[in-house]
Design a protein that fits this description.
There is one protein chain. The protein is built from 14 helices and 11 strands. The protein has about 350 residues and is an alpha/beta fold. It has 2 domains: about 230 residues, inorganic pyrophosphatase (n-terminal core) (Alpha-Beta Complex), CATH 3.90.1640; about 110 residues, Diaminopimelate Epimerase, Chain A, domain 1. The strands form 2 sheets. A 6-stranded mixed sheet has the order 6-7-8-9-11-10, with helices on both faces. Strands 2-1-3-4-5 form a 5-stranded parallel sheet. The protein is globular and about 55 Å long. It starts with a helix and ends with a helix. Bound molecules: manganese (II) ion (MN).
Length: about 350
C-alpha cells in the first residue's frame, strides 16, 4: 500500500471507531475500559513469555509503560523483553530513557522474539507505529493494547484504550494494581516519567495525575534527578543550534512554525530535537504550533500543538499520523513548503482557515 492509501484507511478506521464510540454512553465506555483492564491483568497473570513494546521514536510514556509492566512481570519470573517500534533492527532507544532500564530488560528491535506468547503494545496509536515489529501483533498468541490516543482505531485481542487517561502509564498503573504489584522506586520512576511528560509537567488533565504522582513520590521516586535527566539536560552545543532554530521561526496569522534542518537532526539526540516544540509553542500569538524536523533530504517528521481551539489530531490523522487533540504528529515525504501547504489545507478542512 502507498502512504496515501494507508492514510485513507487509517482515516476510515478512525472515523468508524469515532462513530462506534459516539453510540456508547460515558458509563458504557468506562465499563468497557474496566473490563479490558481486568482481562489484561488476567492474561498477564498467566503468561510466561511477554514482549512489551513502545512506539517508534519512543517517548517516556511508551517506554515507561513497557518498562514498568516489564519489571513487575520479570520479578514474578516471567521471561520479559522490552523493545520499541523502529525502522531499522539496530536502532537504539533515546539515551535518557535507557536510564529507566535499571534491570536490563530493554533490547534492540532485532532481539525481539518472532513468536511471543503475549505482546503488549504501549502508547501505540496505530499498529504502524511499531515499524518493523508490527508483524509481532499477529505472530503473538495474544496481543494487548494499552493506549490513550483518541485517534487510535483499536487493534489487538485485548484493548485497554481510554482517551480519558492523561497518559498510558495511568492505565498500566491500573493493571499493576490488579496484579498486586508493590510500586517501588524503580517501577515508580518509569510511571512518573510517562505521567510528568505526557501531562506537560501536570499542566494538562484532572486531579488523577496529581494523586498518582503523590503515590509514586511516597513510593520513593526521586523527582528532581529523574526529571533533570529526562527534560532538563542538553549538551552546551545545543544552545547555539537552538538559537538558530528559534531565530528562524515564522509567525503566520495564528500559526507559528519552525524547522529543524537535517544537519541538526543528525548532530543531536532526539531529546534535543523533540524539545524544540515546547519552546516554539510558548509564542503567545500561536494557536497552532508546527515544528518540521527534516529526517532525510525529502522526509519530515512534524510535531503539531494546539492551545485547544483546534484539534490537531484530526490534522495529523488526515496527513497519515495521529495523536491527541492538543498534541499530534505525522511523518511525510516532500519538501518543506509542500508539507506546510498540506497542513494549512487540512486546518482549512477542519473548518478553521
Ligand atoms: Mn502517551
Amino acid at each position: 500500500m502507498t502512504t496515501e492509501q494507508e492514510a485513507r484507511w487509517a482515516r476510515a478506521r478512525a472515523a468508524d471507531r469515532a462513530r462506534e464510540l459516539a453510540r456508547l454512553t460515558a458509563a458504557d465506555r468506562a465499563r468497557a475500559v474496566d473490563e479490558a483492564v481486568e482481562t489484561a491483568a488476567d492474561v498477564l497473570d498467566g503468561a510466561t513469555r511477554v514482549v512489551l513494546l513502545g512506539h517508534v521514536n519512543p517517548d517516556a510514556d511508551s517506554l515507561g509503560s513497557a518498562l514498568a509492566l516489564g519489571v513487575a512481570l520479570h520479578r514474578r519470573g516471567v521471561q520479559v523483553v522490552v523493545s520499541y517500534g523502529a525502522a531499522e533492527p539496530d536502532e537504539l532507544p533515546p539515551e535518557t530513557l535507557r536510564a529507566l532500564d535499571v534491570e536490563g530488560l530493554l533490547h534492540r528491535p532485532a532481539d525481539v522474539p518472532v513468536d511471543p506468547e503475549v505482546v503488549v503494545c504501549c502508547d501505540t496509536a496505530d499498529r504502524r507505529r511499531l515499524g518493523i515489529l508490527a508483524d509481532r501483533v499477529d505472530a503473538a498468541e495474544t496481543t494487548i493494547l494499552v493506549d490513550h490516543h483518541a485517534s487510535n482505531p483499536g487493534f489487538g485481542d485485548v484493548q485497554v484504550l481510554d482517551p480519558r487517561a492523561e497518559a498510558t502509564v495511568i492505565l498500566v498503573h491500573r493493571i499493576l494494581d490488579l496484579l498486586d504489584v508493590d510500586i517501588d522506586p524503580v517501577i515508580g520512576a518509569c510511571l512518573y516519567a510517562g505521567l510528568a511528560t505526557d501531562t506537560v509537567g501536570f499542566r494538562i488533565g484532572g486531579p488523577g495525575p496529581h494523586r498518582l504522582a503523590a503515590e509514586l513520590v511516597e513510593a520513593g521516586v526521586q523527582v528532581e534527578p529523574l526529571m533533570r535527566t529526562l527534560v532538563d539536560s542538553h549538551p552546551f552545543a545545543w544552545l547555539a543550534a537552538l538559537g538558530e532554530i528559534l531565530a528562524g521561526a515564522t509567525l503566520d496569522g495564528d500559526l507559528v512554525h519552525a524547522t529543524v534542518p537535517l544537519a541538526v537532526v543528525e548532530s543531536f539526540r532526539p531529546e534535543e530535537v523533540e524539545s524544540v516544540v515546547d519552546l516554539v509553542r510558548t509564542a503567545v500569538e500561536a494557536e497552532v504550533t508546527v515544528v518540521l524536523k527534516q529526517i532525510a533530504r525529502t522526509r519530515w517528521t512534524v510535531s503539531l500543538r494546539s492551545r485547544g481551539a483546534v484539534d490537531v489530531a484530526a490534522v495529523a490523522v488526515a496527513l497519515g499520523g495521529g495523536g491527541h487533540p492538543r498534541a499530534a504528529g505525522f511523518t511525510r515525504d516532500g519538501d518543506r513548503e509542500g508539507i506546510l501547504a498540506a497542513i494549512r489545507t487540512s486546518l482549512g478542512d477542519s473548518g478553521r482557515r
